[in-house]
Amino acid sequence: MKATAKLALDAAGARGVTYADARAVAIRNRSLTTKNGRVGHASESESLGIGVRVIADGAWGFAASADLSPASVAVAAACAVDIARASARVKRESVQLAPEPAAVAEWTTPYKVDPFTTSVEQNIDLLLRADAEMRAVAGVTLAETGMNFQREESWFLSSEGADIHQTKYSTGAGYTAYAFAGSEIQKRSYPNSFGGQWQNRGYELIEEMKLLENARRVGEEAVALHHADQCPGGAATIILDGSQLGLQIHESIGHPIELDRVLGMEANFAGTSFLTLEKLGHLRYGSELVNVVADARQEHGPGLGTFAYDDEGVAAQLTPIISNGRFTGYLSSRETAHTIGAMRSGGTLRAEGWSRLPMIRMTNVSILPGETPLSLDQLIASTDDGIYMETNKSWSIDDKRYNFQFGCEIAWEIKHGKRTRMLKNPSYSGITTEFWNSMDAICSRDEWTLWGTPNCGKGQPQQVVGTGHGASPARFRNIRVGSAYKGS
Amino acid sequence: MLTQEQAAAIFDRIRRLSSADEVEAIFTGSRFALTRFANNTIHQNVEEENSVVSVRTNFGGRTARSTANQFDDESLRRAVAASESLARVQEPDPDLLPMPTPEEADFGGPSEKAAGEGARSTRSFAKRFFEETAAITPAERAEVVRYIVSVADQHKLTTAGIYSTADSREGIFNSRGLARWHRQTLAEISITMLAGDSSGWQKLNSPDVRNLDPQRLAETAAKKAVDSAHPREIAPGKYTVILEPAAALDIVGFMFWDYSGVAILDQRSFLNDRIGAQLFGKNINISDEVEHPLQAGSPYDGEGMRRQRVPLVEEGVVKRVVYARATAKKMKTSEYAGKVGPIEPTGHGFPLPNEAGEMPMNIVFGAPEEPQTVDEMIASTERGVLVTRLWYIREVDPYEKIVTGMTRDGTFVVENGKVQCGLRNFRFNQSLIAMLSNVEAMGVPVRASGEESLDMVVPAMKVGEFNFTEGTKF
Question: Which of A181, A400, B130, B321 has the highest Cβ tally under 10 A?
Fold first, then answer.
């Protein structure tokens, strides 16, 4: 595959480009699900191909092909050059790339157990046992489980001399119990909704998840929600669990800091951002307790945004995004770095597979835990009147990332420092900066988890990649609760 | 890209490699090109070509799938082996049916020839492949973008969007003699025009690039951006709304996953206990109709069954849902038989194995008796909101079918029968059941394309009591 990438690079170079890179990628995936005691689907897939990116006449061109014969690779490279020259017909400025040392490197995701060495029987048996535990609860009408593994091996070569070979593993699993009765469908998920928990690790992640230990509780909570009171509306103090806070970070911090959005490149689909350039270093994004980083390094943890080099050969980095509440950094690329006066890319350019053009993506955008020891129990104990919400059920945010609304699967009322009655259909909404400025407590490292969002969509054609979000439970004051059910 | 004959030859090799009782191969391939522009310049311009074979093997009720995009002997051998080993470790599924024969897949109509013999449907089907679309070059796309940018420059606006073309093929072959092949093209243009505090948007696609009118799309998007400048802020609440077709499509599209036999059996459909009831207004008629001249897509489903026209809603009453073969068999012996209308395979199944079963994917709204243009809807509105586009729609309540989302790129105040000015964007939380019970007027259904739901044939709608719950800052 490396020789194929070299061939593409040479073919592009022969056509007079000023820059070229080639990514040859081989992906293997296993996907297993169960539903109500039976295998839902069992599938494996392989995908190989190459993407060639060039700058010619000051403009970008990109072409990708699954046909790895020398002739077809040369055709793909020529196609990329032709496309770049066509792009140059509607060009205002030539592309500028921030300098980057040409890396020569090998890197593999650290893992203990290669997930593809585990047997399908073993995988399915675990899922079916979790499925059975959920359905052992009277009132559970549907139980669904899932497990996924991916191995992505890539060879990145550039005309500047980069030669990077990376192999990334990701693993994910989770389940949901549904209960339909009367005129309501309620559900509970574990360890997170919409696919569970995902990280760049091996099968050891599955072994640590305690899938069987939590399945009965999840089923019981789905059924119990039918007897719970409706979550009240109005202004309230809320505490969010770490998984929900991870999605809140993803939507109201991670997307608005993408520099391509800020610069209008995503205006037609994903949208723009309220974080216009003059706000860098000045905007009070959140309270003093809000410290957020974008960190792709292994030191941050095995998130879905962890790697050694991004897809244009820039080394993984830590970028402070919000420091003691102040907005301090964007996610950038070699092409966009100069717009914020940066001498170097922040190393966030990634692509889905081999066939798509890399673009700015979240790495691991995480809120740092509180420095003062604080457990969730202690946080609840220190709250006189509030609502504790767990596990995302719905999410929506406007195209500049100001107004958001989230629904959660379950909540509990907090009275005088104690978790009291269960509440169903909780939701909250607000304006991004007002929300983050209302945070007055966050739990410490012991409660912090690096959550994975495997399904982040962006770009045209749309690309889906995984992102990481470390978070611990946190408290927010004077938040609008219940708008989702108001008048509808 | 694979031809039908090449795919048939690959299927023959797959059959020889497999020891399974039955074998199926689904082929998909496309050459896709997209020119993307923003800030009045082309900033991304891509082309990709890929072909994939997905192999399903079946051993006495045990089935699994494996996918590859290389067609050498070793890659195919690995794909077949992976499918077989995944299948063998499972317990037999009593609901799994033998793969369909050509006669069954055609519901008794004209049969296909055997696989590998250049099979082609003998039944008529609207042409969905156009050489004019397949032949578009990067330079031709750039010229269209140059024109769109000139419209933006003329109005002192900034534009962003895409112009894409695709030439795609899909085929399904099975060891019981079924052979299906479908080729189609699709051209798409989406344009956003941005001003200082406002924006406008238009999008259209068609198998035939000659049906797109970049000039009209660009001018309309620009007019919306100009006319919605300096948006007014009004209090959230219930308003009469006029949803242009793309906005109507994106919100109603969220209910069609539930028009599925498996969704009823799983008790996750808002139609559980509601089929046969007057759920919507009497002016609502909806069918699934792949052969409608304004629809696109393949005429067969994930098992190769020919997609049938299915009337889903008649005069506001949900009459029936769609079925894959196995779902229909299971439904007939379930507690729901007798409560869900006609039960029969309709040709809407996803490739097996899967959990979701089936879904109607070619929705067509019935034309109203007295269609109104959007201008006529505006003229008859004392106070309301005109919506161009909806965004980030998600389900809040699965049984009451409450969905939330935002307006975007061209939201206007309508007062005294006229568009008065732009409006800051709203968040809505709206039950689709209530919405389709409050449709006061509709236009002539057109082919529309949004971002959240499948393309469909849908009218503009004037809806009473639409529930806006919050505003935003722009």
Answer: B321
